[in-house]
Write a structure and sequence with these properties.
By secondary structure, this protein is α+β, with helices and mostly antiparallel strands. It has three helices and six strands.
Length: about 140
């Protein structure tokens, strides 16, 4: 018998979905309408250059966004990801906590930064960090 079994401790059960679990929409889920509500907010934490949000303040543990990104494209990628259901099962308010999009061989992750307004920040991630279901 293990120490855990002898002490009467049980393995905790997960009550909330894991980050990479995909949202399973219900009949009441209108991802197309939700996609029109999401916005992208430039985060200087993932920039090493001057942006409209100010000078880049790239964190040492953060991935840098490519300098040549068109932020109108980024907003569209985010909206496409939400509309196509490429979002996490974790939801805060009305919005999924994470969204993912593969663009030209790169994977981008968007994280909800303001659940009241549906604002996301985004950054590139490695393929092995992306959900296995992401096409």
């Amino acid at each position: 018998m293990s120490d855990r079994q002898e002490s009467g401790m049980r393995t905790p059960h997960r009550h909330r979905p894991r980050k990479l679990d995909r949202l399973a929409p219900t009949r009441d889920t209108d991802l197309a309408a939700l996609s029109e509500k999401v916005t992208y907010s430039i985060s200087t934490e993932h920039k090493d250059y001057l942006t409209s949000a100010g000078p880049g303040r790239l964190r040492s543990d953060a991935s840098a966004c490519p300098r040549n990104l068109d932020f109108d494209d980024v907003i569209q990628w985010l909206r496409d990801a939400v509309r196509d259901g490429q979002v996490s099962a974790q939801v805060e308010g009305d919005f999924p906590r994470y969204a993912w999009r593969r663009v030209e061989g790169h994977v981008y992750e968007a994280r909800l930064s303001n659940s009241g307004l549906g604002q996301y920040k985004g950054y590139p991630i490695q393929d092995d960090e992306a959900p296995s279901w992401l096409s």
